[in-house]
Amino acid sequence: MIIPRPVELTVRPGEFVIPAALHLSSGPGATRAADLLAGYLGDRPRASEGPIVRLEIAPDELPYEGYRLEISPAEVVLSAPGEEGLFHGVQTLRQLLPPAALEPASAPPDAWRWPCVTVRDAPRLPWRGVMLDVARHYLPPEFLEEFIDRIALHKLNVLHLHLTDDQGWRIEIEGLPRLTEVGAWRTESMVGPAGSTRFDGIPHGGFYSQRRLRDLVAYASRRGVTVVPEIEMPGHARALLAAYPHLGNRAEVSLPVWTSWGISEDILGVHDEALEFCRTVLAQTVAVFPSRYVHIGGDECPTTQWETSPVARRRIEELGFTTPAQLHGWFLRQMQETLAEHGRRAICWDEAEQNGDLPAEMTLTAWRDPAHGVGSVERGHQVIMAPHRTTYLNYAQSTHPGEPPAPPNVTTTIADVYGFDPLAGGLPVAGGNRPGVLGIQAQLWTEFVPTPDHVRYLTFPRLCALAEVAWSEGGRDYEEFRGRLKAHRERLRVLGALRALDTA
Ligand code: ACM
């Protein structure tokens, strides 16, 4: 009943009863995974004898993230070639507990047991991500921690945080105080989709200090989850332009942090100061987030203001370009090079590729139709498959009239998520610097999603289906998955991840 389905799992008779005092042994490199497991078991006192739970790093032909688990009545052995594998094995141990044990504080004494099993397991794809938009609605860091823990439960390994957009700037940047004093707050929010004329009249905002973000990164790291920050540019920039109007194309116009949804023509300028601003922000961002990858946005960037801006015209001439649209790719290339100087790799939303050649080193999040992602792989990129019809969890999950407000005229069911194959047509998995599919990612945009409960509602159980697509090899049987999901829902319920609106 494990989700995502392991490569091999054999159940044998018998069980391992977890004693009141835990005999836990962790070899070199296994301490953090052992601590995580001990926390899931209610941080009980430790013993130095009795039935033992052993975690160890051991050479194996399994990939780095793989693990082996052997549970017998007297001993539990979790071994892996790397720490990531141990973290995943710990999550399997967590799912093998009776669901009542998932809330250790209220678990009855007889919940502490594991069935005897043999597991050999490893992921299908290296990038198994979820994007959460904390720009449209600020979400409290305590909730982000809960969210990270639930991601880890499903062996997903990336939380992509969309930290900046037209409607809010959420990351503290030293030396640029107005980003959070001004850019983090809006006077009200649009009610309904882009183009609506209704507003709620309720101020909204919030931001994360660098110290709090470092804590979040550490919390995620203790679960094998990498937090990948996104600083959106050169479009979706109205919050920063509200703070620093001279970074745009109309310094004389005072723009508020945007209260509408949609695509704004007010984007960053292409003058040196705008580029320097982005470099300053990225330098501080990489100092907070140790992730190999940093996302620089790049989507939905109308270049109309660059057509008339004298600064942009000069830049076009200086670069020998023929159209303002070429500045879009150029802008992103500058920032890709900046990140490379910091030893990092840049990611952008894939549509930026259409406005100028992006270097092969740029990883792309392919959010439109999957064919765009296929094209990007063919042109030599590493691609994270994120096609909106099957991975946008902000879309309604059914046509049920009780569904909360969501983008109009589109639904993404559990079956839709489960049915998408990111490697369809025989696409290769990316590795090293080789082009291919790096992985798959769920997106949760929050224009319609103001609260943690609403995020929980939209995320589960659809994210469980995405996790299985990301982790488990093909040969999918949706009915068989639904059977496991039924049992898994009990775990989600105990964890408070399922909300009453769940009609699926
Ligand atoms: C996107 O949905 N604009 C990435």
Describe the structure in your own words.
This is beta-N-acetylhexosaminidase. Belongs to the glycosyl hydrolase 20 family. Its EC number is 3.2.1.52. It is an enzyme of class 3 (hydrolase). This protein is α/β, with parallel strands linked by helices and 504 residues long. It has 2 domains: 8-121, Chitobiase, domain 2, CATH 3.30.379; 127-359 and 382-475, TIM Barrel. It is 32% helix and 20% strand. An 8-stranded parallel beta barrel has the order 7-8-15-16-17-18-19-20, surrounded by 6 helices. The protein has a 6-stranded mixed sheet with strand order 1-6-4-5-3-2, with helices on one face. A two-stranded antiparallel ribbon has the order 9-10. α1 (31-40) packs parallel to α2, α3 packs parallel to α5 (210-221) and α7 (272-288) packs across α10. The mean pLDDT is 96. The structure holds acetamide.
Entry summary:
With about 500 residues, this protein is of the alpha/beta class. The chain has helices at about 30-40, 85-95, 140-155, 180, 210-220, 240-245, 270-290, 305-310, 310-320, 325-340, 370-380, 390, 415-420, 450-460, 460-470, 480-495, and strands at about 10-15, 25, 50-55, 65-70, 75-80, 115-120, 125-135, 160, 165, 170, 185, 190, 200, 205, 225-235, 295, 345-350, 365, 380-385, 435-445.
